[in-house]
Design goal:
Blueprint: H1 2-10, E1 18-21, E2 27-28, E3 50-52, H2 64-68, E4 76-78, E5 84-93, E6 100-107, E7 109-114, E8 117-123, E9 136-139, E10 147-156, E11 163-170, H3 187-196, H4 205-222, H5 225-233, H6 239-252, H7 273-280, H8 291-303, H9 305-318, H10 321-334, H11 340-349, H12 354-366, H13 372-378, H14 384-398
Antiparallel strand pairs: 1-11, 2-5, 3-4, 5-10, 6-9, 6-11, 7-8, 7-10
Helix pairs in contact: 3-5, 4-6, 8-9, 9-10, 10-12, 11-12, 11-13, 12-14, 13-14
Length: 399
């Protein structure tokens, strides 16, 4: 039965995909009246944001693409000449949505409210500012609901260029390709991998290139299980096919090397368990969950998956609330499905904390029948973010 729930959770069937990027559709400037961050606050008279060069004028390592660590059409935005700017953006989450994530970065300090609740912060002076992937990844399941939602952001600049950039995806491609350890590929994905596998060893170069590209896309969306299946299908493959399997693997893992020269500011790395543990243990005011840290953990999941699971499970269970929250968010982002019970334990032990809320959210993708009771109890815990995430996970897993 558990595999059935995993199959449903991993299914890509959804009503619609929504992508929101920072652009001139955001309201900006506005007023500082009490309740400006609340959904009901009128913002029709607010001016629209302007796209700006922002911190990128100080170097290419400050571009949106390098800061977020992904290719995107989003822009730095601002309004006016003040060092404080407020932003608002309304959006609709489609009925039945299964995944919702946001990746954002600010120059310099940002406070983010979603539907009137404080959800996340950013401080360029307390993280990896100026390095690839310094943006923060947020699971939105504890914060949004089907239907109308509002993001409100207050950004304060402390000197130099100003800017805010974000990408929000609902039922779109995950920002971090899932590892999905312990999970199964859906029958549709399995069939497609098996169909494409022989083309990696085919005679036509065009067919080999097309199959490699298609399999890379499947690996990014479904994790390293795609590579495992390819290796099983092509046990006696030629050196050419083995090389192409390696390319598929590269497509499923982030490239930690610099994208420009040998400049470390354009790289996600370095990565080690010592670095991971140190980042998990950073004080609460530090930016401890940049997407570069999640990508690093993904590489560790491939090189030593058992050690990564032990490190994250220990931090989730035995760390303070901040350490537990960070570990839970990494487990969830990587979709380490065989760690679902770790999330359920955190949910049981810390229901009225962000760690519990993100644990409930992660179970939407990692959980199964065994975690339904924990989610049902959390849905009545009295803490809004956990209740929202638990109810959404129950909806997703039962559907």
């Amino acid at each position: 039965m558990r595999s059935c729930f995993l199959w449903l959770a991993a299914s890509s069937i959804c009503a619609a995909q929504v992508t929101v990027v920072t652009d001139v559709t955001w309201r900006a400037g506005g007023d500082d009246a009490d309740g400006w961050e609340q959904p009901a606050h009128p913002d029709e008279s607010w001016p629209f944001a302007e796209t700006v060069e922002g911190p990128a004028r100080n170097g290419a390592h400050y571009t949106v693409a390098n800061s977020l660590g992904i290719a995107s059409e989003t822009s730095w935005i601002w309004s006016g000449d003040d060092d404080v700017c407020r932003f608002r953006r309304r959006f609709i989450a489609p009925a039945g949505f299964r995944r919702a994530e946001m990746l954002f970065v600010a120059d310099d300090i940002a406070e983010v409210w979603i539907n009137g609740e404080p959800a996340e912060f950013y401080d360029s002076q307390k993280g990896s500012w100026g390095h690839r992937g310094c943006g923060v990844l947020v699971d939105l399941l504890p914060w949004i609901e089907e239907g109308a939602n509002v993001i409100a952001v207050r950004v304060r600049n402390v000197g130099g260029p100003r800017g805010f950039a974000a990408v929000l995806r609902i039922d779109g491609e995950a920002f971090v390709p899932p590892v999905a350890a312990g999970a199964r590929l859906t029958p549709e994905v399995t069939a497609e991998v098996k169909r494409l596998a022989p083309d990696l060893d085919g005679e036509e170069a065009g067919a080999r290139d097309a199959a490699t590209a298609a399999l890379q896309k499947l690996a990014r969306a479904n994790g390293l299980k795609v590579v495992d299946l390819l290796r099983a299908e092509l046990r006696d493959a030629s050196p050419e096919a083995l090389m192409r399997i390696g390319r598929v693997l590269e497509g499923a893992l982030p490239d930690l090397s610099p994208t420009q020269d040998d400049d470390a500011r354009f790289a996600f790395g370095p990565v080690s368990f010592e670095i991971l543990n140190a980042r998990l243990a950073l004080p609460a005011e530090n930016q401890g969950l940049c997407i570069r840290n999640v990508f690093g953990a993904q590489v560790l999941a491939h090189s030593d998956p058992d050690a990564l699971r032990r490190a994250l499970a220990t931090a989730a269970a035995d760390g303070n609330d901040v350490e537990s929250m960070r570990a839970v968010r990494i487990l969830s982002a990587l979709e380490l499905a065989d760690q679902a019970e770790v999330l359920a334990d955190v949910l049981h032990a810390r229901p009225k904390t962000p760690a519990g809320a993100y644990a409930a959210a992660g179970l939407a993708r990692m959980g199964g029948e065994a975690q339904l009771a924990a989610l049902a109890a959390a849905a009545r815990c009295g803490y809004g973010p956990t209740e929202r995430a638990a109810n959404a996970s129950l909806r997703i897993l039962k559907k």
